[in-house]
Write the structure tokens for this entry.
Amino acid sequence: MEAAPLRPPLQIGPITADPPVVLAPMAGVTDAPFRVLCASFGGGLYVNQMVTARALLHDNKASWELARFHPAEQVRSLQLYGTDPVTVGEIVRRLVAEDRVDHVDMNFGCPAPKVTRNGGGAALPVKRTLLRAVVGAAVRAADAESGGRVPVTIKFRVGIDDDHLTFLDTGRIAADEGVAAVALHARTALQHYAPPARWERIAELVQAVSPLPVLGNGDVFTGEDAVRMMTQTGCAGVVVGRGCLGRPWLFRDLEDALAGRPVQPAPLLGEVADVVRRHLDLALEWRRGSVAHDDLSDRYVVPAFRKHLAWYLKGYPVGAEVRRAAGQIRATDDVHALLDGLDPDAQAVVAAESVVRSHSNALKRVALPEGWLDDPDEDVALDPALEEMFSGG
């Protein structure tokens, strides 16, 4: 008999995520091939990487390419970054009117200096009036064009640092402006990705904005972690970031754990190699669908794939020489040759899921506009021209 689910599906407007799991948008990572691969292991909501509203409005080709979705994606979920209510409203209206998205997420959590020094990302929630204007513009534009069909959510951090906590005000403003759900990364901008996430902050936000669904983000590396986070905080779902890097099967584990089923053992290295080949094929196919000449695929796909290959090998006893070779691959044949040389029966080391992948550090300081922390109620308007025309983080 099928085990009863430990947690109900997540409802974001008309969108159902079952299990209640969301792939966090990650710069240079959550492109269409990676999203499709992760979704092949389990249900949930798979969000595209951050795209800049101003860049889309000015028809930046690279940004529109990032905003493209794979035909296999059932829900087209896009994260936007912007600091100007007019720009944000206009591009959300266009995205919805042209039927390009099913869900819009707003980024108020990015701690990158190039974002925060201009008042964006994790810096923007400090200015409550501006935050309300940007969130409200996105929600009204989506509702006007879709009649509620396209929900808007926001993702944010606990605050700038321990002396400048903004998450409760941010959640209440989001609820007032009609967002469908909020996601809290339970660290400050200063903490970046260290030390351990403060899950108790998620519980505080749940209490403050109920019945608005709250998603928890931070240190979900296993199915058990997801169950513990939801049990301890009362959150409606979990957001997964670094935990799935090189481990897309984590979404299978999350689905099993949240359904009350036993989680399967970590794959053998031969099974990992099969996943790597699938990922590479998806990446090559996706690139060939966006350029005129197939012979450009290796040049663009393989260098960007090196980080994924390194993440896949983390936690397996492959040796320093193989890891070094993985960082020097230049062509698809190099990838296949490296995989052919691996021991298919090698097992993951103990606690392989906790091996550090990607960011694991704190910032020395948060880059902010001058005087940014002085008056949270200041009615500030940021110059849209200050937003760099970049997307992806």
